[in-house]
Specification:
By secondary structure, this protein is of the alpha/beta class. It is 37% helix and 18% strand. The chain has one domain (7-285): Rossmann fold. Helix 3 packs across helix 5, helix 4 (92-100) crosses helix 5 (109-121) and helix 6 (138-147) runs parallel beside helix 7 (171-179). The N and C termini lie far apart (44 Å). Bound molecules: S-adenosylmethionine.
């Protein structure tokens, strides 16, 4: 098995570096801190856990920190909550490497056991928890959820950054993701504040807000079907970003294009776009 080498982050927790994507799996400021702030706290999971049931879609499971942080919070608030987790991941050796190197040790033993079982067997079925780790390209594995009309209360969207993994930030993929979000209760959270990502979320029919997660230099994004009232508003800087060519979204009409193809298509579209050039915006706000 390929083994990823741990890289320590600012909060003492470890992450990995991906040679294939040329990027770390988490921010330098702190991997577990990111799971807690950017995903669990931004989605208000502690309050949602007071409900009888909770359904979570964890896109890009990786080492499993987002799922771990979610379970720890839910079980602290309401151990009786009936939790369903669907997690999507292309490379199971990431989760297996994390387990083999005991990187999940800061989570409670019960949470560690769930993560171990997910890495080994890809499914956990308990009286109050049903969790599945669906292996493969998320553009394909999400189809099974759509086909059974499965909809999440909370979606964690955590791919590598758009320039390194544009496949999972396209309008077409995010349309599939939006179909897996509950129209009444659902909220999607991501670390990305990229203008192209925010435009794609809007084109997928969602309203967007800005999340200020502790530790990170940039805000993240929260999205849902409700009108924007109540969502943390975008700053003037963020609103103006959406008027620039940085906001030209990634597209993948067949949902099977390569990263290279998606990047090239977007570059072509940026060249002919009516939107403002991004350089003046960058100078104005630097
Ligand atoms: C930024 S990391 C996610 C970190 C993770 N959420 C965690 O808490 O450890 C991105 C993950 O996306 C996975 N990935 C990359 N391309 C994918 C694809 N097309 N479908 C599903 N997963 C993919 C990578 O293997 C990697 O584990």
């Amino acid at each position: 098995m390929k083994v990823f080498a741990p890289v320590e982050t600012g909060d003492g927790s470890s992450t990995f570096y991906s040679e294939a994507f040329g990027e770390r799996f988490h921010s330098r400021e702190g991997a577990c801190n990111e799971a807690q702030k950017t995903y669990v706290e931004a989605s208000n999971l502690a309050e949602r856990a007071t409900e009888k049931r909770l359904k979570i879609l964890d896109i890009c499971y990786g080492l499993g920190y987002n799922t771990a942080a979610a379970l720890e919070t839910i079980w602290q608030v309401n151990p009786a909550c009936l939790v369903e987790i669907e997690a999507l991941e292309i490379d199971v050796t990431v989760a297996k490497s994390a387990i083999a190197q005991n990187l999940t040790k800061r989570y409670k033993p019960i949470v560690q056991t769930v993560l171990q079982q997910l890495a080994a067997e890809q499914t956990v079925q308990r009286p109050t928890l049903s969790a599945n780790l669906r292996l493969g390209d998320a553009r394909q594995t999400i189809q099974a959820l759509r086909q059974k009309s499965w909809q999440a209360d909370v979606i964690f969207l955590d791919p590598f950054s758009p320039p390194h993994c544009p496949q999972l930030w396209t309008v077409e993929f995010l349309q599939q993701v939006a179909q897996c979000l509950s129209p009444s209760t659902g909220v999607l959270v991501t670390y990305s504040c990229a203008a192209a990502v925010r435009t794609a979320l809007k084109q997928a029919g969602l309203f967007i807000g800005s999340t200020r997660a502790g530790g990170r230099k940039w805000p993240g994004t929260i999205a849902r079907y409700h009108d924007a009232a109540g969502l943390p508003p975008l700053s003037l800087q963020e609103q103006e970003h959406l008027q620039t060519r940085a906001a030209v979204p990634y597209e993948d009409p067949t949902l099977c294009a390569s990263a290279q193809e998606i990047l090239e298509l977007r570059s072509q579209q940026q060249r002919v776009s009516n939107l403002l050039p991004t350089a003046p915006w960058r100078r104005r706000w630097k």
